[in-house]
Structure formats: structure tokens, C-alpha cells
């Protein structure tokens, strides 16, 4: 049976294939330490789990739910945005809970793109933007993000493009994979650019609480709601990646438009899960500080590992990963990633999976215990580093 044309040029997600390879290596007894995936290994707050347990035990919560989400969850998102981002949203009309923000990426593309419509996609950037655009029939137009420009869009270069067919622009700050923080200035320029060219900005914002004391929303910029949609998620901020709870925030018109597609694709989330997510959104500063203290300690180990590999990196980046430039002794990030995997039994992500703008980089996840990071360091030290030192000494 032939597959649909929309799948042409769409490969299986990189981590899906890589995890299968790692599984095979583990069957061979390799015991791979996986430092590539951004799946939080810490649990949600105990009160969140307790809420899920208590609500799920009730007999009347197991039916279909409202497509727009439970009022309790929408109001919790409204309060969360007000408390942490200083943004006022209408819980009835401007908030749409999602089964994870990745779902929202696809919903947005399917809602707004016709065949041949163009979309500005960051390079390097989250690979799902590109695949969702293609699956919806759109055409990806890369815009490069470079370290020398603090991984901000080059608006001068964008103005020199033919933007007549561009309908959407994917944006992501704090940026994944580079960890670049959002700035009010970049957000303001994005809003002005979108207004000038009638482009819908799609801001993906799941990392704003990780190792960052000042979470920011694009809606903090005046006029942003006229030209932007923002996605957010509890996956990283509340250690709830497998729960699949996200949100789309936008003006009423945009929410209604996306809802037209969403209601034909899924149903409402399990109510106890929504109520537990609402509980998570009430957690205070102490929760974020506790989680970030753990990540900060792990990040020091990642720095140690990167120093051994002779990589260079910024200590100003935030989020769940560390992005680093590889030494000139390696052709690209894939070569370094493979060397560490096959020689040291440690998996780190090659930057090239995020676009050719990431070819000279690697990315290491902070999701793993200190013991795992220490073991990874010892493995790399005993294989790659000792081999390198021996080769240097023999010259």
C-alpha cells in the first residue's frame, strides 16, 4: 500500500530511531547512558499526584470532556500567566488546553496552511516545526540563528526575502536547542515584523521556567495578541512530560479557528488529569527553586564533560540542555556524538538534527542523576580522553 504524498520527505523522528538503536546496543550489554533526551526524570509535586489519585477514584469523571478543557484548568492557566508572566488572559476565550504543546504545533499548521503556503522556520530549531509544516502542505523557509547575533532573528536579512507567500513564523524563546533567553527587544521586533507583513507569529514557550528566574511571554509586548499565538506546556516546568498537558494562548479569533480543527481530531483530556494539572499550576516559587537547584548541580557536571571534550559553550544559556560548539578535530556534531556513543557508551545529541545551522554543535540534556553524569564523565575519560592524550604523547 502506497503512503500518502504528504509523507514524502518526512522521515521518522530522529529520537525514535536513535532510541531503537540504543535499545539494540543495550541488548548487547553496552548499558548506554542516554544524555540526549529532554525527558524530566524527576517526579511531579506529590500534591499533583495525590490530586490525580483522588479525582480518578471518583465514579463520575470518566466520560468525554469539553473540547475547550475544564474551566478549572483554563482558570488555572489564566492565573499562572498573570502571576508569572504579568499577562492577563480571558479564561473563557483566550486559553485552549492541549494534549501537550507538540499537538498544538500540528493543530496550528493544519488550521492555517494551504498547499504552497510558506513558513519561516528557525535553523537551528525544533525539528517538529519543519515536519508539521510539511505534513500540512506548507513550504519551510529557513531563517538562520547565529551565536554572534545571540540567536535572534536577523531582521535585516528577513526583510530582503520575498515574504509574499509567508503565512506563519515559528519562534521559540528560551530557544531550544541553544538555550538563548528571550528579550523584550526581540519580542517587540517580532511583533512589528509580523504586523508589517501580515504574518502570524507562533511562539513556542515550554522552557521559560528551567534555570531562568525571569519567565517571559511574547504577550507581554503591546499588540502581540493581534499577531501571535503562544504555546506552553507543563512537561518541563512541572516534570509532567508523559502527562501530555499543554496550552494554546491567543486572541479569541485564533482560539476559535484552531478549535475548528482540534474538535475534529481529538476529544477533551481525562478530567482528573486536568484537575491535577490545575493543581500543578498553583505551585509557588519554592517548587521552581527546588527543581532548578537540582538542574544547576547537574549542569556543572555537564560543563565538566564538555571541558574534557574541548567544546566551547556559553554559561548564560537556560533551559533543559547545554548547547556547545565542538572542537575542530571533529568534522561535525554527528562525528563527535558517534565517537562518544560507540567508544564510551554515552549518547549525546548531534546539533545537526536541528538543522544545518547546528552541524558544528552538540547538545546535552540535564535529565539524569548526578551519579549518571559522573559515570558518563568517567567513561569518556577512560576512552576518548585517554586515547587522545596517548596519541598526543606519541607525536
UniProtKB/TrEMBL annotation:
Pfam families: Aminotran_1_2. The keyword Repeat does not apply. InterPro entries: Aminotransferase_I/II_large, LL-DAP_aminotransferase, NHTrfase_class1_PyrdxlP-BS, PyrdxlP-dep_Trfase, PyrdxlP-dep_Trfase_major, PyrdxlP-dep_Trfase_small. One of its GO terms (molecular function) is transaminase activity. Residues 31-380 form the Aminotransferase class I/classII large domain. Keywords: Aminotransferase, Transferase. It is an enzyme of class 2 (transferase). Belongs to the class-I pyridoxal-phosphate-dependent aminotransferase family. This is Aminotransferase. It comes from Filimonas effusa. The lineage of its organism: Bacteria, Pseudomonadati, Bacteroidota, Chitinophagia, Chitinophagales.
